[in-house]
Amino acid sequence: MTDYLAAVMEMLGPAQNRHADPAAWDRLHAELGIQLPPDYRALVDAFAPIEINGHLHLSHPATEWWNLGEYIRSTIKAWSEVPWDDLDLDADEDPRMLFGLDELSFGTPNGLWPIASTDRGEIIFLLATPDAPRFLVSFDETWAEHRISFAEWLYRYLIGEDMTGPNSAAFYPGPVKLRHLPISAGERPEPWYGPDRGM
What we know:
- By secondary structure, the chain is α+β, with helices and mostly antiparallel strands.
- The protein has one domain.
- Helices cover 29% and strands 17% of the residues.
- It has helices at 4-12, 22-32, 38-47, 68-80, 95-99, 150-158, and strands at residues 50-52, 56-58, 112-118, 123-127, 135-139, 142-146, 177-180, 192-193.
- It is globular.
- InterPro entries: Knr4/Smi1-like_dom (IPR018958), Knr4/Smi1-like_sf (IPR037883).
């Protein structure tokens, strides 16, 4: 069985842990009332705030800029203001019908929690369920569901599978391109690349 966290770390290179802070996670979890998945936390601590392959953004709970808690709160607020019951959604556009949800809520114990995004408008939501990880991805009025760990989702995203919807692959051959997201005014981080991955 594949250890997807180890496989992703091998693609991205040595963990940097620039902002790793267990107290920041404790504060965030207390505020949210849920626990974010351990593999997600490990990847965020290892690299975030980071842009991966020019598209995927991961924020961190211990930074002022690209702060994960602020990202989650602001995204929940925006999505909670959408009048879902008033929208004339087709069956393939309504996440309630697609994924068997009794209701569509954001930031609630059984609701959707935004944990990552891309510059293409894709948002990766964690569905807070006690049994197994479940991720719903929204992109341009389409939805995709993945009942896998975040590390497996990221691994498959990086090898070019359609992880944010049909025909959504963002595959770039060669090493993974990484760039720290700026955490102060005027900062312009230079990109670097992970190890060769033979693809």
